[in-house]
Amino acid sequence: MKKQELKGGYLISPRRKQALIALGMGAFLCFASPFSIHGEILSKDVQSLQQQTVRIKGTVVDRNGEPIVGATILVDGNSSNGTVTDIDGNFALTVSPQATLSVSYIGYTTVKVKADSKKELKIVLEEDSKALEEVVVVGYGTVRKADLAGSVSVMDSKTFRDQPVTQVSQTLQGRVSGVQVDHSGAPGGQVKIRVRGSASISRSNDPLYVVDGIVRENGLTGINPDDIQSMQVLKDASSTAIYGSRGSNGVILITTKTGHANQRVISFDASIGIADVYKKYDVLTPYEYATAYREIKDANAFSDAEMTGYKNGTMGINWQDEIFRTGYTQNYKVAISNGNDKTQYYLSANHVNQSGIINNSSDKRYQLRANLTSDVTSWLHLTADFNLSHNVTRGSDFGASKGNVIWVALNYSPTMEMMDQKGNYNKDPYNHIAFNPKGVLDLQSGESMSNIANAMIDLRFKLLPGLTFTTTNGVDYYDGKSYHFSTKRVFLTNPNGAGNHDRYRMMLQTSNNLTYIGNWDKHSLTATAVWEPRRPNTEISTLPAKTSP
User: Fold this and answer.
1) Which residues are in the TonB-dependent receptor plug domain (predicted)?
2) Under a CB-based contact definition with an 8 Å cutoff, are residues 345 and 338 in contact?
3) Rounded percentage of the chain residues whose pLDDT exceeds 70
């Protein structure tokens, strides 16, 4: 008897097997041509799908070959598909083969090019001739952008008009090359601005702030971003030289808005935003912490009942839940402007109410501004400006030597008890780094208030053709108070305490400059003589207090 094969539950003899193989080969030969044709159709469909999009790469430069950072590349007719150039001016974008790219950047003419995946594009942008005629504010005067020689960055209010910014410093962040802006992150917190880095390790590296010709010792605090018409950042020695040593760290010039003749504008804007922690830190749970502590340090550190409580979540502390919350921001702005051919006015008000994502942190600001411009006579132009701001900031911290509240909370044990039987906030028995972070946020309250007033009156006299004399007189007033409270419920062995810090400052300034501007054929001359006295007055007082419970 011949051997048979078992396949798929059936017995197949060798003869039947040969017959089935022959039948299969015949069927394959009969249908080989149709299958081959169908295979070509499928491959063409796949190839067609692949050719619907191509990857375009390129570089955007100016006429000198310097890369343009932040240039916008959009598919013409499809604004949802686009990108921006990186720090080297490079970009990459997936588009259809017949797409047209629109390349634009502020101050340059827009260029449109056809997409070409076979080679890397090099797109050259030319400066806009209209932009070259724009007037740029520089030290004690103005100049056409085409005649500008120093390193000056110009930012118009259109750049941040639709952005949800509450502080002027936010408008500079990421928008001006060579300018670094660091925020503390807290509502109303400290802001550090550096123009081309830090030049000193022992003295201030803050730039000089000049608003409408008046130096502001308070920096950008108390200014409504919507009141700004333009900002200029003077960076190099040639552009800051007229300010002397005061401009060694750079100069930030701000020109505020004014009314326009025969243009009545009433605007109101209200915005509400919500802030939350995008992603919390991944730390050990109470059960994981207790298990690791047992294995590494003390096997008898926690009872079985405690371990069960940590495991099922009835015991233990999630410190991130204790210090974080959902924050919100309310921003209300109203502005009115009008005028005739001789006199124009501008009025604005702003209220910002912001609560931070850290418990017990908030900032409130109330701001008013009034501006009046008038051609009093054919030879006298008057500008008067008044700005008033009231700020209230609340928050708590451990001080620079102990780290911030987030760092302390992340290092606190999740297995400890929050309070003792007397209602005092416990310190971490396993990690003696700082006082209880929740106790500090709940009971160690701190509040700072500031009143800022700035007033300016500017008189410009036309003496002779091309010769003008301008006198700008202003006052920069600041009155700040901060309060600090501490309690034994948090600091345990320390007595109850309080602190009061007052800072008063008034700066009187008068700036007088005589300017001559002459033009001969293709030549021009601008000469300026400046005399600027200032009278500062600063008073500081600190009053600490300690009491028994």
Assistant:
1) 145-251
2) yes
3) 84
Angle between helix axes 304-312 and 286-296 (nearest 10 degrees) is 140
Q: Are strands 496-520 and 523-531 parallel, antiparallel or unpaired?
A: antiparallel
pLDDT in tens, 384-415: 999 999 999 988 755 544 557 888 899 999 99
Taking CB atoms within 8 Å and a gap of at least 24, the contacts of 541-546 are: 541/501, 541/502, 542/499, 542/500, 542/501, 542/502, 543/499, 543/500, 543/501, 544/497, 544/498, 544/499, 544/500, 545/497, 545/498, 545/499, 545/500, 546/495, 546/496, 546/497
**DSSP code of 126?**
P
DSSP state letter for 292: H
What pLDDT is stored for residue 417 in this prediction?
A: 92
If phi over 0 gives left and psi between -120 and 50 gives alpha, with beta otherwise, what is residue 205?
alpha
pLDDT grade for 134, boundaries at 50, 70 and 90 = low
- Report the C-alpha gap between 410 and 318 in whole angstroms: 9
152, 140 Cβ separation under 8 angstroms: no
Distance of CA 207 to the CA centre of its chain: 18
* DSSP string covering 382-432: EEEEEEEEEEEEEE----TTT--HHHHHHHS-TTS-SB-TTSPBPPPSS--
67-120 pLDDT tens trace: 888 889 998 888 778 898 988 889 999 988 888 999 988 778 889 998 877 778
Separation CA 381–CA 344 (nearest Å): 12
Beta sheet of 54-62, edge-to-edge order: 90-95, 54-62, 121-125
Show the tokens assigned to 11. 């017995």
Distance from chain centroid for Cα 393: 20
